[in-house]
Fold:
Amino acid sequence: MGFDIQNRRYTGSKQKLVKWIRGIITKKCDNVNSFCDLFAGTGVVTNALINDFNTFYINDFLYSNFIIYNAFFSSDSYSEEKLFVLKRQIETIDPRNVKSNYVSKNFGGKFFSKNDSLVIGEIRELLENEKKTDRINFREFCILLSSLIYSFDRCANTVGHYDAYIKKPILKDTFVFELINPVITNQKEKKFFISCKDSNQFVREIQPDVVYIDPPYSSRQYSRFYHVIENIAEWKKPKLYGTALKPAPENMSDYCTVKAIDAFRELVADLHCKYIVASYNNTYDSKSNSSKNKMELEDMKKILDLKGHTTIFDINHKAFNAGKTDLKNHKELLFLTKVGEHDE
Ligand SMILES: C[S@@+](CC[C@H](N)C(=O)[O-])C[C@H]1O[C@@H](n2cnc3c(N)ncnc32)[C@H](O)[C@@H]1O
Structure:
């Protein structure tokens, strides 16, 4: 029971490809102890490699992802007993006794049913109070907040991301609060450095053996796609705009713009590591402009070649494209650069 790390809907999640990615990293990278998941998204790539490295650096600029990594991977301890007591308290919340709140006012009848939105807002407020009174530590707070995120993602009235809600009446209340299953359960032998920074800044602070790079390659901004999750995670209750009820833009990625190639060039130049592993998929023949790649295969290869010998692996894979385009022969690629090794 409970949610495992991969049990969420996330555009570009590598869950279906992690075995293939892990196989290449473990076979081709020698003498390595530390792994960095630089644009970690769901964190499923780190999860797949959890037994292969001792030290992990996990980064994404979305705060909700930072909370989720702390929940699943932090080596800080937590009390299962406390979590179960709070889960039981949460399960007694009855929407008929709940006052209207930020979630119900903004998202009720839109992204969630009216009753579900009342309960989600009430739980988020309860977690904030528990955190303020120090009855739970930061790891416990992250586990509970991630559990709320995974639980409401199940009942959200969307196609998977929150760019829009489905414009039909919501007939049923379907929210059920379930706890997540942490990957790291009170053990100290592995080290985790979890961060919420712009990747180009983060790489200047670390020297891992292997760096895995999986940036967005199209103009779709993750902070806009997952704004409801980010909003409920941050709980700053900002003013919202438009039919999709988005806050003012933040965490807009250069990788989704014409600056992508320059950003990637700068990032790679600043890397201090033995191996660079980068994902890429070819969506060139897509009819939708927003899913067109900002960086071409050749651009990436040229930039990586400056650092060392680069090999490209590929596998056929069905892409995310919200059902609009039929990408034939869609290929998922993986670059592997052995830093410092150059062809004669
Ligand atoms: C393609 S997704 C990564 C998916 C991930 N490999 C997985 O399997 O779930 C790209 C991620 O990069 C993050 N991101 C985009 N631009 C960033 C930046 N400049 N710095 C840090 N994170 C960024 C997004 O929030 C998103 O989660």
Observations:
- Confidence is low (pLDDT under 50) at residues 320-326.
- The first helix runs from residue 18 to 28.
